[in-house]
Structure formats: C-alpha cells, structure tokens
Amino acid sequence: MRLLLLFSLFALLCGCNTSLGVGVGSGTTRVGIGTGGGRTSIGVGAHTGGAVAFTAHKDFLPNGPSEIYTSNKKAVMALRDGDTTTASKILEANLEKYPNHPDSTYYLGLTRIYQGKRDEGFALLKSYRAPDNYRMTSEVQRSAAFLEKKPELSAEKIHEVMNKNRSDGYQREIRERQDILPSRW
C-alpha cells in the first residue's frame, strides 16, 4: 500500500519544480521519492547497501519576469506537443522584447533543432547566458558544443541530454552557493 502511494505521488510530482522528498521503510527496505530543479527521482534501497534509482530530467523555467515566464511556459508546452511553429513564434517574440533571455534562447535553440535547423539551434544554445548562474551557462554551452558533433542524435535525445546537463548545472550552482554560507547565522 505504501509503495502504491509513493508511486502515485511520483506520478503527480513529475511536472513539479519545487523541492520535495518523501521516504518510507519497513524492515530493511527503504523507498524514497524527491523532486526539484527540473528533475524527479525515485529510489529503492535495501539495508545491505544495494539500491535502484530512477531520475527524470524535465523542462524547467527558473527565471524571468512573470510575463515572459508565462509566455515561455506556453512555448515549452507547444514544443512538447510537437507544435514547433507556435513555439518558435512565441520564443522569437520573447527575444524581441527581452533580448538574450536565457530560457527563451535555450528553448528556441531546441525548437530549431526539432525543426531540422541544427546549425541555427546549436548556435543559439552555444550563445546561451544565464547571468546569475555560471554553472548552468557552462553546462548548456559545453553540451551544445559536444552534441553538435553528433549528427546521428535525434532532436529528442539532444533535448533529453541538454535538460539533464542544464538541470545538473543549476543544482550544482545552488549547492556551491549553499556551501559558502555559514552553517549558522
């Protein structure tokens, strides 16, 4: 019953970007679930030290004025639905109003790759700049430069890898900022 409850909670949380963790255990088995920063994780471990974990990296929009956040969200939903024309129009309009906005630049780059315009898409991804997040910026730029050299990869695989690395950079930046704070104020 507990396991079913956890898996139901996992399904519900897959689209969330808030940090949350839940865990239960009986005997020597532990089951846990957590979500945050564009990814959701679930894991099962035994007292003997063995464990199995699953992590899904999702699209996430960490910054921007509410107007552009809402607009970017519509574009991401259009991209998920396969409507690259709508996603492209929204993201282009966003970049006209907010030049170099990191989320609009990122998703327009991915949209161009889905549209078969790989050179343009990778150029956008390599120009990505998140001013307050060096780690996320470097992960996106580094990943784009690497993936550009892999013509055999599908747009879906590129999107998946980019999301994973972007999320990892975001999480690393948060950890590094927390590491410099004193443990007690």
Task: Describe this protein's structure.
This protein has 185 residues and is an alpha+beta fold. A four-stranded antiparallel β-sheet has the order 1-2-3-4. The longest helix has 26 residues, at 155-180. Residues 3-22, 24-31, 33-42 and 44-57 have low confidence and may be disordered. The chain has two domains: 2-57, no CATH class; 66-175, Serine Threonine Protein Phosphatase 5, Tetratricopeptide repeat (Alpha Horseshoe), CATH 1.25.40. Helix 2 runs antiparallel to helix 3, helix 3 runs antiparallel to helix 4 and helix 6 packs antiparallel against helix 7 (155-180). It has helices spanning 2-13, 66-80, 84-97, 102-114, 118-126, 134-147, 155-180, and strands at 20-26, 29-36, 39-46, 51-57.
Supply the key terms.
7 helices; 185 residues; 4 strands; 2 domains; disordered N terminus; alpha+beta; 56% helix; four-stranded antiparallel beta sheet
